[in-house]
Amino acid sequence: MNSLIDKYNIPGPRYTSYPTVPYWDESSFSPELWKQSVIRTFKESNAEEGISIYIHLPFCEALCTFCACHKRITKQHSVEIPYLESVLKEWQLYLNLFNEKPKLKELHLGGGTPTFFSPQNLKTLLEGIFETVDISEDQEFSFEGHPNNTTREHLQTLYDLGFRRVSFGVQDYDLKVQKAINRIQPFENVQRVTEWAREIGYRGISHDLVFGLPHQSWEAMEHTIRKTMQLKPDRLAFYSYAHVPWVKGVGQRGFDENDLPSGEEKRRLYEDGKKLLEELGYIEVGMDHFSLEHDDLYQSLIHKKLHRNFMGYTSSKTQLMVGLGMSAISDSWYAFAQNVKTVEEYQKIVEEGQIPVVKGHILNDEDLTVRRHILNLMCQLETTFDINNSFPELENAFDMLKEMEKDELVEMNGHHIQITEKGRAFTRNVAMVFDLRMMRNKPETRIFSMTI
């Protein structure tokens, strides 16, 4: 395995989209084309599928130095109401594009720290959206909660509004690691919010763990996993730490890079962590995610309904996902669009009556074909190519796959590719074989985290 790590531990995307953000063709994108794409997709899919909404709530009271999210650090809670008013105004701008009432199927509150906001302010925001939509009978509403500031009132308020899923960011219970990433978070805090969520009735509780953090050892990782098992969350995200300090504003300079585990050490954290999770009853779903058998994520995997987008893995899909808030990304299947990345500019543009997108990408036919195959690999670990609907680099892609087949990462049968159990850890590498935009324009500088 170590020789494979040396061979395949290269910078690569996480494929929450294709094309990936660095390869968006901004020259052919415009806000007007984005709006046309939204209108097209809404007409095609609202009645049958409904839509998804992602709301980016960017405020945090302290900077976690492992975090690569777009956020604003402040202790001033007076920012809450003006920001939420802007989000509702942005939503109204999208409503103006629709020819009928949206059917809301998925809603996710991400951040930042959604639980930075008071329960009452979150309720005002959500009721403002709910009065403009029809809520699907099989809706999936979820939010991210910080164990240190999530109150029982947060959990009860959001439950009463239809939320049934919550993910708590744990990362690691080792105090030395917590200090390095500026996230001091005792087990007792996580236990308290997890038990509250269960008592209230949440049916989908997730804990986020991260491997590859500074000073992290297998002993610390094993301790964290075993402590987590005392609470038995329904699902787990077991993320590889993405070290991207060159990206403006992510704040990943809070520790010495020499404190990070080596590629070999990091792979051991993943392999031994995965083995332990499976021994404890969790099943690997897609990439980075594990769940118990009863959880919707596993059920969607076995029924081939698993989906992946900018919210990560989801147990259902909609063709249109509207991202609201500073830096939020939207997806109409035919196009992507990202909002401006500062709170002030976001609020200013919304006040001017404009959808605050700053960049995006309109997918061409080739993009759509490649996107489908990469999505298949990321979600189902397999895909089949139609040789009559291929691309010039297909032969080169298959040469790379043959090398991966020799390494037992994939199995090939004609134009069918299946990622093996051994190859799961290298899913991103397999997907990269088909990333035509990156293949044709290899980056001259480091723009992605390492795949291992």
Descriptive report:
By secondary structure, this protein is α/β, with parallel strands linked by helices. It folds into 2 domains: 1-19 and 364-452, Arc Repressor Mutant, subunit A, CATH 1.10.10.920; 21-362, pyruvate-formate lyase- activating enzyme. Helices cover 37% and strands 21% of the residues. The protein contains 15 helices and 19 strands. It has helices at residues 2-8, 31-45, 80-95, 119-130, 152-160, 175-180, 187-200, 218-231, 263-279, 296-302, 343-351, 365-380, 394-406, 427-432, 436-440, and strands spanning 51-57, 59-60, 72-73, 103-111, 134-145, 165-171, 204-211, 235-240, 283-285, 289-291, 307-309, 312-314, 321-324, 329-331, 335-339, 357-362, 382-384, 410-413, 416-419. The strands form 5 sheets. A 9-stranded mixed beta sheet has the order 9-10-8-7-6-5-4-1-13, sandwiched between helices. α4 (119-130) links the parallel β4 (103-111) and β5 (134-145). α3 (80-95) crosses α11 (343-351) and α4 packs parallel to α5. The longest helix is centred in the middle third of the chain and has 17 residues, at 263-279. The radius of gyration is 21 Å and the shape is globular. The N and C termini lie close together (12 Å). The model has no long low-confidence stretch (mean pLDDT 90).
